[in-house]
Amino acid sequence: MTEDLRIAFVTDLHLSAVRPYYQDNWELVLEWIEEEKPDLVVVGGDVVLSDPDDDADHAFARKQLDRITAPWLVIPGNHDVGENIISGGKGQKKVDEARRRRWLDHFGQDFWRNDVGEWTLIGVNAQIVNGDGLAADEEQKTFLAEAAAMTPDDRPIALFVHKPLFMDHPSETDVHGHCLELDARRQLLAPFAGKRLVFIACGHKHQYRSFGMDGLLHIWAPATSSINFPPDVKMWGLREVGFIDFSLGQGERLGRVRQRLVGRDFLFRHESYIRNLEYGDVMKAPPVDQRG
Known about the structure:
Layout: E1 5-10, H1 23-36, E2 40-43, H2 55-65, E3 72-74, H3 78-81, H4 97-107, E4 112-116, E5 119-123, H5 135-149, E6 157-160, H6 182-189, E7 197-202, E8 209-213, E9 216-220, E10 243-248, E11 257-262, H7 272-279
Parallel strand pairs: 1-2, 2-3, 5-6, 6-7, 7-9
Antiparallel strand pairs: 1-10, 4-5, 8-9, 10-11
Helix pairs in contact: 2-4
Protein backbone atom coordinates (compact mmCIF):
# COMPACT_ATOMS: atom_id res chain seq x y z
CA MET A 1 0.00 0.00 0.00
CA THR A 2 1.39 3.38 -1.00
CA GLU A 3 1.94 5.68 1.97
CA ASP A 4 0.02 8.92 2.21
CA LEU A 5 1.81 12.19 1.52
CA ARG A 6 2.12 14.19 4.72
CA ILE A 7 2.22 17.99 4.50
CA ALA A 8 2.28 20.46 7.37
CA PHE A 9 0.61 23.76 6.50
CA VAL A 10 1.71 26.56 8.82
CA THR A 11 0.74 30.15 8.29
CA ASP A 12 0.63 33.65 9.82
CA LEU A 13 3.85 33.26 11.80
CA HIS A 14 4.28 37.03 12.33
CA LEU A 15 7.97 36.83 13.23
CA SER A 16 10.25 39.66 14.27
CA ALA A 17 13.75 39.94 15.69
CA VAL A 18 12.98 43.06 17.74
CA ARG A 19 9.33 42.33 18.63
CA PRO A 20 9.40 38.55 19.13
CA TYR A 21 5.91 38.30 20.58
CA TYR A 22 5.19 34.94 18.91
CA GLN A 23 8.64 33.38 18.78
CA ASP A 24 7.68 30.95 21.58
CA ASN A 25 5.05 29.34 19.37
CA TRP A 26 7.41 29.17 16.40
CA GLU A 27 9.93 27.28 18.53
CA LEU A 28 7.22 24.76 19.42
CA VAL A 29 6.21 24.37 15.77
CA LEU A 30 9.83 23.68 14.85
CA GLU A 31 10.01 21.01 17.56
CA TRP A 32 6.84 19.37 16.20
CA ILE A 33 8.27 19.31 12.67
CA GLU A 34 11.51 17.77 13.93
CA GLU A 35 9.59 15.04 15.78
CA GLU A 36 6.89 14.30 13.21
CA LYS A 37 9.03 14.60 10.06
CA PRO A 38 6.39 15.56 7.47
CA ASP A 39 7.30 15.11 3.81
CA LEU A 40 6.91 18.85 3.20
CA VAL A 41 6.11 22.06 5.06
CA VAL A 42 4.11 24.74 3.24
CA VAL A 43 4.23 28.20 4.84
CA GLY A 44 1.13 30.22 3.96
CA GLY A 45 2.34 33.80 4.32
CA ASP A 46 2.50 36.64 6.83
CA VAL A 47 5.88 35.41 7.94
CA VAL A 48 6.88 38.93 9.09
CA LEU A 49 5.25 40.64 12.03
CA SER A 50 3.38 43.44 10.26
CA ASP A 51 5.28 45.87 8.02
CA PRO A 52 5.98 44.86 4.38
CA ASP A 53 8.73 47.52 4.30
CA ASP A 54 10.65 46.16 7.29
CA ASP A 55 13.72 44.61 5.68
CA ALA A 56 15.13 43.39 9.01
CA ASP A 57 11.98 41.37 9.76
CA HIS A 58 12.15 39.81 6.29
CA ALA A 59 15.76 38.79 6.88
CA PHE A 60 14.91 37.41 10.31
CA ALA A 61 11.91 35.47 9.00
CA ARG A 62 14.04 33.88 6.27
CA LYS A 63 16.53 32.69 8.90
CA GLN A 64 13.65 31.18 10.87
CA LEU A 65 12.33 29.29 7.84
CA ASP A 66 15.82 27.95 7.23
CA ARG A 67 15.57 26.25 10.62
CA ILE A 68 12.78 23.97 9.36
CA THR A 69 14.15 20.42 9.33
CA ALA A 70 12.06 19.30 6.34
CA PRO A 71 11.70 20.47 2.75
CA TRP A 72 9.63 23.67 2.71
CA LEU A 73 7.90 26.09 0.38
CA VAL A 74 6.50 29.52 1.16
CA ILE A 75 4.06 32.05 -0.32
CA PRO A 76 3.68 35.70 0.75
CA GLY A 77 0.86 37.33 2.66
CA ASN A 78 -0.41 40.88 2.93
CA HIS A 79 2.01 41.74 5.73
CA ASP A 80 4.91 40.45 3.62
CA VAL A 81 4.29 42.27 0.32
CA GLY A 82 1.36 44.61 0.96
CA GLU A 83 -2.40 44.44 0.63
CA ASN A 84 -4.36 43.73 -2.56
CA ILE A 85 -4.65 46.88 -4.66
CA ILE A 86 -8.39 46.67 -5.26
CA SER A 87 -9.75 44.89 -2.20
CA GLY A 88 -7.10 45.59 0.44
CA GLY A 89 -8.13 47.09 3.75
CA LYS A 90 -8.30 50.87 4.08
CA GLY A 91 -5.19 52.63 5.35
CA GLN A 92 -2.96 49.60 4.77
CA LYS A 93 0.14 49.56 2.57
CA LYS A 94 -0.66 48.12 -0.85
CA VAL A 95 1.43 45.67 -2.84
CA ASP A 96 3.80 47.18 -5.39
CA GLU A 97 6.85 46.08 -7.37
CA ALA A 98 9.33 47.27 -4.71
CA ARG A 99 7.62 45.32 -1.95
CA ARG A 100 7.39 42.26 -4.12
CA ARG A 101 11.10 42.63 -4.98
CA ARG A 102 11.95 42.68 -1.27
CA TRP A 103 10.15 39.36 -0.93
CA LEU A 104 11.93 37.86 -3.94
CA ASP A 105 15.30 39.00 -2.64
CA HIS A 106 14.74 37.23 0.67
CA PHE A 107 12.65 34.20 -0.28
CA GLY A 108 13.40 33.55 -3.94
CA GLN A 109 9.90 33.14 -5.38
CA ASP A 110 6.33 34.12 -4.68
CA PHE A 111 4.46 31.54 -6.79
CA TRP A 112 5.42 27.99 -7.66
CA ARG A 113 4.37 24.55 -8.88
CA ASN A 114 5.79 21.42 -7.26
CA ASP A 115 5.05 17.76 -7.92
CA VAL A 116 5.25 15.80 -4.66
CA GLY A 117 4.48 12.11 -4.86
CA GLU A 118 1.34 11.71 -6.97
CA TRP A 119 0.08 15.23 -6.23
CA THR A 120 0.71 18.64 -7.78
CA LEU A 121 0.99 21.51 -5.33
CA ILE A 122 0.64 25.09 -6.55
CA GLY A 123 1.41 28.15 -4.46
CA VAL A 124 0.09 31.59 -5.38
CA ASN A 125 0.85 35.19 -4.46
CA ALA A 126 -2.74 36.11 -3.64
CA GLN A 127 -1.83 39.77 -3.12
CA ILE A 128 -1.11 40.42 -6.81
CA VAL A 129 -4.12 38.61 -8.31
CA ASN A 130 -6.22 41.11 -10.29
CA GLY A 131 -3.40 43.57 -9.58
CA ASP A 132 -4.71 46.59 -11.49
CA GLY A 133 -1.81 46.85 -13.92
CA LEU A 134 0.93 45.12 -11.91
CA ALA A 135 3.35 43.33 -14.23
CA ALA A 136 3.67 40.59 -11.62
CA ASP A 137 -0.04 39.84 -11.96
CA GLU A 138 0.40 39.08 -15.66
CA GLU A 139 3.48 36.96 -14.90
CA GLN A 140 1.55 34.89 -12.40
CA LYS A 141 -1.47 34.59 -14.71
CA THR A 142 0.76 33.13 -17.42
CA PHE A 143 2.44 30.85 -14.91
CA LEU A 144 -0.88 29.48 -13.64
CA ALA A 145 -2.14 28.79 -17.15
CA GLU A 146 1.06 26.90 -17.97
CA ALA A 147 1.11 25.06 -14.62
CA ALA A 148 -2.46 23.87 -15.06
CA ALA A 149 -1.90 22.90 -18.70
CA MET A 150 1.09 20.69 -17.87
CA THR A 151 -0.79 18.85 -15.12
CA PRO A 152 -2.66 15.71 -16.28
CA ASP A 153 -6.42 16.02 -15.91
CA ASP A 154 -6.60 13.09 -13.47
CA ARG A 155 -3.75 14.24 -11.21
CA PRO A 156 -4.94 15.77 -7.91
CA ILE A 157 -4.03 19.42 -7.34
CA ALA A 158 -3.76 21.33 -4.07
CA LEU A 159 -3.76 25.12 -4.28
CA PHE A 160 -2.19 27.23 -1.51
CA VAL A 161 -3.09 30.93 -1.17
CA HIS A 162 -2.79 33.38 1.71
CA LYS A 163 -6.32 34.77 1.69
CA PRO A 164 -9.61 32.87 1.53
CA LEU A 165 -11.37 33.05 -1.81
CA PHE A 166 -14.63 34.13 -0.15
CA MET A 167 -16.27 34.36 3.25
CA ASP A 168 -19.95 33.42 2.86
CA HIS A 169 -20.49 32.60 -0.81
CA PRO A 170 -18.42 32.54 -4.05
CA SER A 171 -20.65 35.23 -5.58
CA GLU A 172 -20.15 37.82 -2.82
CA THR A 173 -18.74 41.23 -3.71
CA ASP A 174 -18.44 43.00 -0.32
CA VAL A 175 -15.10 41.68 0.99
CA HIS A 176 -13.50 44.49 3.09
CA GLY A 177 -10.02 42.96 2.88
CA HIS A 178 -11.16 39.65 4.37
CA CYS A 179 -10.72 37.67 1.15
CA LEU A 180 -10.19 37.97 -2.59
CA GLU A 181 -12.64 40.09 -4.55
CA LEU A 182 -14.94 38.49 -7.11
CA ASP A 183 -12.79 39.18 -10.19
CA ALA A 184 -9.66 37.96 -8.41
CA ARG A 185 -11.21 34.65 -7.35
CA ARG A 186 -12.55 34.09 -10.87
CA GLN A 187 -9.12 34.84 -12.34
CA LEU A 188 -7.44 32.47 -9.90
CA LEU A 189 -9.76 29.54 -10.53
CA ALA A 190 -10.11 29.89 -14.33
CA PRO A 191 -6.95 27.90 -15.26
CA PHE A 192 -8.19 24.89 -13.27
CA ALA A 193 -11.44 24.35 -15.18
CA GLY A 194 -11.53 20.69 -16.13
CA LYS A 195 -8.65 19.86 -13.80
CA ARG A 196 -8.75 17.81 -10.60
CA LEU A 197 -8.46 20.65 -8.14
CA VAL A 198 -9.14 18.91 -4.82
CA PHE A 199 -8.63 21.58 -2.18
CA ILE A 200 -7.61 25.16 -1.53
CA ALA A 201 -5.73 25.91 1.69
CA CYS A 202 -5.34 29.42 3.06
CA GLY A 203 -4.57 31.42 6.19
CA HIS A 204 -5.01 35.16 6.87
CA LYS A 205 -8.05 35.06 9.16
CA HIS A 206 -6.33 33.39 12.14
CA GLN A 207 -9.25 30.94 12.27
CA TYR A 208 -9.73 27.25 11.55
CA ARG A 209 -12.46 26.31 9.11
CA SER A 210 -13.00 23.47 6.65
CA PHE A 211 -15.92 22.91 4.30
CA GLY A 212 -16.77 21.62 0.85
CA MET A 213 -18.62 23.45 -1.94
CA ASP A 214 -19.29 22.23 -5.47
CA GLY A 215 -16.81 19.38 -5.09
CA LEU A 216 -13.97 21.61 -3.85
CA LEU A 217 -12.62 21.63 -0.30
CA HIS A 218 -11.79 24.97 1.35
CA ILE A 219 -9.49 24.65 4.36
CA TRP A 220 -8.50 27.64 6.49
CA ALA A 221 -5.49 27.15 8.73
CA PRO A 222 -5.33 29.16 11.94
CA ALA A 223 -2.24 31.19 12.78
CA THR A 224 0.72 29.74 14.64
CA SER A 225 1.15 33.20 16.19
CA SER A 226 -2.05 34.48 17.73
CA ILE A 227 -5.78 35.00 17.68
CA ASN A 228 -7.07 38.21 16.11
CA PHE A 229 -9.91 40.47 17.23
CA PRO A 230 -12.01 40.38 20.40
CA PRO A 231 -14.44 37.51 20.97
CA ASP A 232 -17.50 39.65 20.09
CA VAL A 233 -16.31 40.23 16.49
CA LYS A 234 -17.91 38.00 13.86
CA MET A 235 -15.91 34.85 13.17
CA TRP A 236 -16.42 32.39 10.34
CA GLY A 237 -14.40 29.59 11.88
CA LEU A 238 -12.82 28.42 15.12
CA ARG A 239 -11.01 31.21 16.95
CA GLU A 240 -7.87 29.26 17.77
CA VAL A 241 -4.09 28.97 17.23
CA GLY A 242 -2.50 26.02 15.45
CA PHE A 243 -1.71 24.59 12.03
CA ILE A 244 -2.88 21.82 9.69
CA ASP A 245 -1.41 18.33 9.34
CA PHE A 246 -2.48 17.00 5.92
CA SER A 247 -2.44 13.36 4.85
CA LEU A 248 -2.97 13.18 1.08
CA GLY A 249 -3.88 9.81 -0.33
CA GLN A 250 -1.79 8.18 -3.05
CA GLY A 251 -2.00 4.92 -4.98
CA GLU A 252 -5.40 3.31 -4.46
CA ARG A 253 -6.35 6.26 -2.21
CA LEU A 254 -5.25 8.92 -4.69
CA GLY A 255 -7.07 12.19 -4.10
CA ARG A 256 -8.30 11.44 -0.60
CA VAL A 257 -7.69 14.26 1.89
CA ARG A 258 -7.39 13.92 5.63
CA GLN A 259 -6.61 16.98 7.73
CA ARG A 260 -6.33 17.63 11.42
CA LEU A 261 -5.85 20.74 13.49
CA VAL A 262 -2.60 20.59 15.46
CA GLY A 263 -1.29 22.82 18.24
CA ARG A 264 -4.32 23.70 20.35
CA ASP A 265 -2.87 21.59 23.16
CA PHE A 266 0.65 23.02 23.14
CA LEU A 267 0.79 26.43 21.45
CA PHE A 268 0.23 29.59 23.49
CA ARG A 269 -3.13 31.19 22.76
CA HIS A 270 -1.80 34.73 22.30
CA GLU A 271 -4.44 37.44 21.85
CA SER A 272 -2.94 40.00 19.46
CA TYR A 273 -5.84 42.44 19.76
CA ILE A 274 -4.89 43.24 23.39
CA ARG A 275 -1.53 44.66 22.33
CA ASN A 276 -3.15 46.52 19.44
CA LEU A 277 -5.68 48.07 21.80
CA GLU A 278 -2.89 49.26 24.08
CA TYR A 279 -0.56 50.68 21.42
CA GLY A 280 -2.83 51.25 18.42
CA ASP A 281 -0.56 49.19 16.16
CA VAL A 282 1.78 46.31 16.83
CA MET A 283 4.68 48.18 15.21
CA LYS A 284 4.26 50.91 17.85
CA ALA A 285 4.57 48.40 20.68
CA PRO A 286 7.86 48.14 22.62
CA PRO A 287 10.78 46.57 20.75
CA VAL A 288 10.92 43.86 23.39
CA ASP A 289 8.13 42.38 25.45
CA GLN A 290 8.23 44.21 28.76
CA ARG A 291 5.90 42.01 30.78
CA GLY A 292 6.91 42.28 34.46
